[in-house]
Design a protein that fits this description.
The protein has helices at about 10-20, 45-65, and strands at about 85-95, 100-115, 115-125, 130-135, 140-145, 150-155, 160-170, 175-180, 185-190. By secondary structure, it is mostly beta strands. The protein folds into 2 domains: about 10-65, no CATH class; about 80-190, Lipocalin, CATH 2.40.128. A hairpin with a 4-residue loop joins strand 1 and strand 2 (about 100-115). It is elongated and about 115 Å long.
């Protein structure tokens, strides 16, 4: 005698077991599949294709190093010389000077004449535990050099190198760092007036 099960009375989970599949993904599906009736293709105009292509090339040129696509950030290939520093500059320097007992802070006026002569004309400063008020100094009391790459050196009246310098903004500003032993001092200077040649 053959027994026919009444599938309407069997619970849903047992039906899977009877069918031989323990996981739902293994059981045959009897769900309707969604199939769109009209497949619509989007067509791009020629102008859109060219725009997309040009945008891709622009991004490639921006992020890749392709010969001929390097952008020069300087307006011209100007080089520096002693003539780049010319005029009166306000400066400030801060740091540590071991020979003076520790931290120092100074500011003053420095005159560069454009041919390698320079000198501090007036300055004031403080270093622990002493300070000095505005002091006038006879000019010139030093010299300077500037290389074509805008780096250079500053010398005292004896010809001893005391600072390394970088000329910035075509001579409108400069940045210095001390070159003397037991001294770690950095500073900046800004031209106060334009020189008429």
């Amino acid at each position: 005698m053959t027994i026919k099960p009444n599938y309407a009375q069997i619970r849903r989970g047992h039906l899977r077991e009877i069918a031989g599949c323990s996981l739902r993904s293994q059981c045959p599906r009897h769900e309707p599949e969604f199939k769109p009736k009209n497949i619509r293709r989007i067509k791009m105009s020629k102008l859109g294709k060219y725009f997309l292509l040009a945008t891709g090339f622009a991004m490639l040129a921006t992020f890749a190093r392709i010969p001929g696509t390097n952008i020069n950030v300087h307006a011209d290939d100007r080089v520096c010389s002693v003539a780049s520093l010319k005029g009166k500059y306000a400066w400030r320097r801060t740091g540590v000077n071991k020979s003076m007992g520790g931290p120092v802070a100074e500011m003053g006026l420095d005159v560069f004449n454009g041919d390698g002569k320079r000198g501090i004309t007036r300055s004031t400063g403080i270093s622990y535990p002493q300070s000095y008020d505005w002091t006038n100094v006879p000019w010139p009391n030093g010299s300077y050099t500037v290389d074509p790459d805008c780096t250079g050196s500053v010398f005292n009246a004896n010809g001893t190198k005391i600072e390394n310098i970088i000329v910035l903004d075509g001579g409108k500003r400069f940045s210095v760092i001390s070159f003397e032993p037991d001294k770690v001092v950095t500073g900046e200077g800004t031209r106060l007036e334009e020189e008429n040649d």
